[in-house]
Write a structure and sequence with these properties.
single chain; 368 residues; alpha/beta; Rossmann fold; 5-stranded parallel β-sheet; two-stranded antiparallel ribbon; 42% helix; 9% strand; globular; disordered C terminus
Length: 368
Amino acid sequence: MENKVRHVLGISGGKDSAALAIYVKDKYPQLDIEYYFCDTGKELEETYTVIKNLEVYLGKSIVVLKAAEDSHIESFDHFIKFKGKFLPSTFNRWCTKNLKLDPFEKWIGNDLVVSYVGIRGDEDREGYISTKSTVQSVFPFRKNIWSEDVIAKVLKNDNIKFLTSQYIENIESSKLDRALEIVSEPLSIKFSQSDKLNALLGINTPVFNNAVFNFLKTTKYPLSKAENFPLIDNDDVKVLDDIFDILRSSGVGIPKYYEKIEFEINGQKGEYARSRSGCFFCFYQQKIEWVWLYEQHPELFTQAMEYEKDGYTWIQDEPLRALIKPERIEKIKLEYIKRTAAKGKPKSKNLIDILGDSENEGCAACFI
């Protein structure tokens, strides 16, 4: 049993992780995926609705992980009490570690784990990569499904001989010469790792994935213990519109906080929504999102204000009580209308593009 590999997928309550759970279940039913959700106790109600809808579609329970399980108060309140009311921020994201990472790593223990991460093909980021050697992240929505650390090892110059043998054995003869030309060229200032990766993926993605999988068998990565891995044949690239299509067609639906709501200020019209899942007081929110929270969920905004004590604020240099002054709200909305108008018509027809965030599913997206 010690060589058993667990396949896990974290649900944040946001669009991408929900769509990934649906996508993997439908395309790779042979994978025994364990789904989990780290509950901070400070989520919007719509998040829990997504969790329930997903459980129905997936046909299995989503494991709920909570930090400070023995505490008589919610996880966030438990930790802030011992932090001396010090609020988390972009400079000190203790909430991510205490409420997300620690419960996750406690749950998996020392098991070998493949973690499926919902970073899309139209995003340029890596996301959280666990420091535990027993955890390996893969990215089914991208053309390159492998993490940066794996790619660095596979494409290092010392590995050219191995890659050459893989391509000679597996690629069709019409593409062999070009593939070997790319494989044999060492990495340099003029030929970066990214250049080489994209060139090989462009020739034949499944052949490249097969080479990576065979390389992993020579390492201590979790997939070295797997006899096969169905994502080797993955050649999909899923972008924002695809995510919304998956959610709609499955019946799981799109989280309500992504739905745009119209507003009018000084005769000018705009639309706002939330761009992320996660805690309702997430410090990554834009100011227009704080206004959205104040106007759509005033009781939650009041709770967020109550945490701002002893000089600590969610927004640097601006307490929430100042943000909700009528003249300040007016200014935020007008600046937001101006900014979105300057960007022109969004390329995607969907919901959250107006916020200018490519992903931003809050702290949950930092580690799953």
